[in-house]
Specification:
With 401 residues, this protein is mainly β. It is built from three helices and 29 strands. The strands form seven sheets. Strands 2-1-3-4-5 form a five-stranded mixed sheet. The protein has a four-stranded antiparallel sheet with strand order 8-7-6-29, with no helix packed on it.
Length: 401
């Protein structure tokens, strides 16, 4: 059964139309600031070098728990070089500069060390038990080299590296749990999509799943021992699970309904995916069984689910509100959902960050496509990268999760 055009668009399969890096967005897409009555932590951020200062300010502007101030009672966060690829963070509080914490951290580069130090500052000052998320890595699609290719970078699109050179339509990059590989869908071999995996360090590409029909939307299980994906080799689009080598496929669904975007629960025991009509989100045991529809109460359309690895009760997805797509969040424990984004542009393809509060998503209009961080508590959205950065379909990986 062919996928509907509506479903293709919401699943990122129209990514080839996205603008290249360097294309100037038509407006300030991605940026949303909403005045909300919510608790924030005032901080003053300073860096001993212009580079540290700039990156630290960028990081804390993207975090919804914090409010940057220049005067008044606040935490003072001071970042300074401390040797090769090391940054020291010193945290004091108030006019008396009461010591809170000081620590020197190391990273693979000075930039990565700063982001790691900023995460230390978040853990020591947020007051809600939130994890830091600044050390997240992105795998994303960009057309900066012409046709769409997959890149990796830090959360703020720094130190970006191209890891595919397929010269073909690529989409849906997803990290392996250890961060060493990216699995993705590509039309590299034929007019039908197959699943490939690329080594992040070497860029070496391997054909992973190339059965008859289409093979798409693959994701590693949290253990890295299995892969869930959609295949059409038996006629209809069905959810399958293979081993880590893409072999021994086991069919998990059996219906004529169009299915897409399978993702795993944090413990690997459940699968969540989108299925027509609608589509809507369905949950089922990873071992197989009868899919159960989630009662999101977020309208007639829900797709592209992502299950938080650190808050097992939270699922993000793309929903439709009127004629627009927005980011919805569903609380499995409460059985309640909400529209988390409040933008005048489309929001699609959410991917959770480590604190279970923020996520990365693609903001787009008819001419622009950029990556953003969304604070799901407030609806505030912060565009990633420079004003001329155009990227989409990002997947988040955080070391240690």
């Amino acid at each position: 059964m062919a996928l509907s055009r509506r479903h293709f668009l919401a699943s990122g399969l129209a990514a080839a139309a996205a603008p290249a890096f360097g294309a100037q967005p038509s407006r300030n897409i991605g940026e949303v600031r909403i005045d909300v009555d919510t608790a924030t932590v005032p901080v003053r951020v300073s860096g001993a070098t212009p580079e540290l200062q700039s990156l630290a300010l960028t990081a804390f502007r993207a975090h919804g728990r914090y409010r940057l101030v220049s005067t008044g009672q606040a935490f003072d966060l001071k970042f300074s070089p401390a040797g090769a690829n090391q940054v020291r963070v010193e945290i004091t509080r108030g006019a008396a500069a009461t010591p809170v914490h000081a620590e020197t951290v190391a990273g693979a580069t000075p930039r990565q060390a700063l982001l790691k130090a900023a995460d230390v500052a978040v853990v020591k000052t947020n007051g809600l038990g939130l994890r830091g998320f600044f050390t997240a890595r992105l795998a994303f699609v960009s057309r900066r080299a012409g046709r769409g290719e997959i890149y990796t970078s830090d959360l703020f699109l720094g130190e970006a590296r191209q890891i595919t050179r397929d010269n073909a339509h690529v989409l849906s990059p997803r990290w392996s749990p250890d961060g060493s590989r990216v699995i993705y869908t590509s039309y590299f071999r034929s007019n039908a999509p197959d699943v490939f995996v690329s080594n992040v360090s070497s860029g070496a590409r391997e054909t992973l799943i190339s059965f008859r029909g289409t093979n798409s939307g693959a994701r590693f299980s949290p253990s890295g021992q299995q892969i869930a994906l959609v295949m059409t080799g038996e006629g209809s689009s069905e959810i399958y699970v293979t081993n880590a080598q893409g072999r021994q496929p086991s069919r998990k669904t059996r219906s004529d309904a169009v299915k897409s975007s399978p993702c795993w629960s944090p413990d690997g025991s459940q699968l969540l995916f989108a299925m027509e009509p609608g589509p809507q989100l369905y949950q089922m045991p990873a071992s197989g069984g009868v899919p159960r529809r989630l009662a999101l109460n977020l309208g007639t359309y829900a797709a592209e689910p992502d299950w938080s690895r650190t808050d097992r009760n939270k699922v993000a997805c793309t929903v439709r509100v009127g004629r627009q797509y927005q980011i919805g969040v569903f609380d499995l424990a409460k059985g309640a959902g909400k529209v988390a984004s409040k933008a005048s542009f489309d929001g699609v393809e959410p991917s959770w960050l480590a604190d279970g509060r923020h996520l990365v998503y693609t903001a787009r209009d008819r001419t622009s496509s950029v990556l953003c961080v969304l604070d799901t508590e407030t609806g505030n959205s912060t565009r990633l990268g420079t004003p001329d950065s155009a990227a989409l379909q990002a997947c988040v990986w955080t070391p240690g999760i």
